[in-house]
Amino acid sequence: MESSNANGLTVIIVGAGLAGVMLALLLEKQGVNYFILERAQAVKPLGSVMSINSNILPVFEQLGLFEDVKKISKPCRSIGLHDLQMNKIVDINMADYEQMTGYQPAVFARPRLYELMVSRVPAHKIFRGKKVVSIEETVDHVVVKCSDDSQYQGDIVVGADGAYSGVRQSLFKKLEGEGQLPKSDTQDLTYGWVCTVGLTKAMDPEKYPFLKDDVSRFSQVIGKDLLNYTAVTVTDNQMCWSLVVQQEKENAVKDPNLRNAEWAAPEALETSLKEFYAFPCPLGGMMKDLIDATPKESISKVFLEEKMFETWHHGRVVLIGDGAINAMQDAVILSNCLYDLRSTKLSEITAAFKDYREQRYPHAQSQFDNSRLVGRLTCGQGFSDKILRYFVFNILPASIQRQQFLKAASYRPQACFLPLAENRGQGPVMPQKPSWRRELELHQERQHSNEQQPVAA
Ligand SMILES: Cc1cc2nc3c(=O)[nH]c(=O)nc-3n(C[C@H](O)[C@H](O)[C@H](O)COP(=O)(O)OP(=O)(O)OC[C@H]3O[C@@H](n4cnc5c(N)ncnc54)[C@H](O)[C@@H]3O)c2cc1C
After folding, report:
1. Residue 146 dihedral angles phi and psi, to the nearest 5°
2. For ligand 1, atom 35: residue with the closest CA
3. Are 216 and 74 within 8 A, CB to CB?
4. Which residues line ligand 1 (CB under 6 A)?
């Protein structure tokens, strides 16, 4: 493939999920040669509710997609947490989010955002039906093989293939064989959630009056017997729902079948759905009504686990993604680091990947910790979870909550090679770290000026 950029780089992206597509959009702007290998034959309108906020919306502004995101989403001003009797446990108020950050949190159905983003990637750059099965590196290149025996050559491979990344598995296997994989990366994930999600057809606003609101109604229910669920209004009179069954540690570890890793309709779906039929829907009626109003092809199920891996890259292979906002931030920072490459030499590539990990790891770690905490606060059914919930929502001073909120909202990485979106809102915005190339240049400039200084007598 011909390359139009100065460094002659060719990037193979594995996986056309949100991370892969975001990276493609950014590389497209840089004029870097890239293509995506995607396992699925076609885009399936799968997935339920998603939300993005000031942590990534500036990049959508840079890409000229901000207004389009607004069209497919509703702003969210609060999240209601209920018990099974529909008593409100707490209303997590986000009314001043816009004033503080300059952005309203955007709530939408995942397929809408995906369709929007993928529509901006030139179709000929996505190869579908290409399941990557192996990766081989030479000194100068990397060769990727797919299950249909096709193979592709590039300078780097970006594994953007989701939570159960095959690229990660193949990288880890190689590193383990060489005794280079940290022990924590070899350990099993302990427990997680079986999550079934759906997007209804357009519903009757007379029956569900919340649909008439300009804002999204986002309601979560802490159920019983490790069951929790969510119902959310989005645009086009549609509603998103998700049903979550927390796995006991023992079951999750023993049953490898839980890890089907596909956001696809599994067998025995009916059984898992029926568990929720009789639960009341916080937006009206029963959960059965929402499930019945959802076309089968808009229901998917996945086993979700959480783990922070230590190893993010090796040689010419780098990993990005998972977790909606995190995945897209990974793509932004990686594209910044690649922008600085002056050649495709392994030493340069390693410097870029190292910088990417250094920039992203602390933020990914704090997002990971935060999402665990939010999970306990909004789903936890254990005694300690209830105490924690009571403490956070009733005792913790509002000023401390606000501080945490402002800190989280201040991380807004942008693409350094595009005109920057202005800093909005009254809250702080974290300055962006100069790139590895710029730091090297600054270091050289400092050294040079030190050498020029006259030595004191
Ligand atoms: C169909 C689908 C529905 C989802 N629904 C929701 C939802 O409702 N709510 C939610 O919070 N999150 C959902 N997610 C997950 C969410 O999109 C991701 O966690 C997040 O956006 C990070 O995206 P990602 O690009 O890292 O991973 P993903 O979005 O999981 O994308 C990974 C992509 O890689 C492809 N792939 C995997 N293995 C290979 C391989 N060997 N070769 C080539 N391609 C491969 C997959 O087909 C997929 O397109 C869904 C993901 C998918 C794929």
Report:
1. -110, 165
2. 15
3. yes
4. 14-20, 37-40, 46-48, 50, 110, 130-132, 160-162, 166, 197, 263, 300, 321-324, 327
Nearest CA to ligand 1 atom 6: 47
What pLDDT sits at residue 225? 86
Q: Are the C-beta atoms of residues 357 and 349 closer than 8 Å to each other?
A: no
- The label of the residue with tokens 């309203």 reads 104
Q: What is the pLDDT of residue 235?
A: 97
Show the domains of the chain with their CATH numbers: 10-72+108-186+309-409 (3.50.50.60), 192-305 (3.30.9.30)
In this structure, are residues 17 and 162 in contact, taking their beta carbons and an 8 Å threshold?
A: yes
Neighbours of 40 (CB within 10 A): 17
Count the alpha carbons within 13 Å of 310 in the hemisphere toward its beta carbon.
9
| Token duo for residue 264 | 């696809």
pLDDT of residue 454: 67
CA of 193 to the centre of ligand 1 (A): 16
pTM higher than the cut 0.90: yes
DSSP β-bridge partners for residue 194: 245, 303
CB count within 10 Å of CB 432 equals 15
Furthest-apart CA atoms within the chain: distance in Å: 88
- Indicate the burial class of 131 (C-beta count within 10 angstroms; 0-12, 13-18, 19 or more): middle
The band of 6, judged by pLDDT with boundaries at 50, 70 and 90, is low
Contact 10, 36 (CB under 8 A): no
Tens of pLDDT, residue by residue over 96-120, are 899 999 999 999 999 999 999 999 9
Report the C-alpha gap between 436 and 320 in whole angstroms. 19
Per-residue pLDDT of 362-391, as tens digits, reads: 999 999 898 888 888 888 888 999 999 999
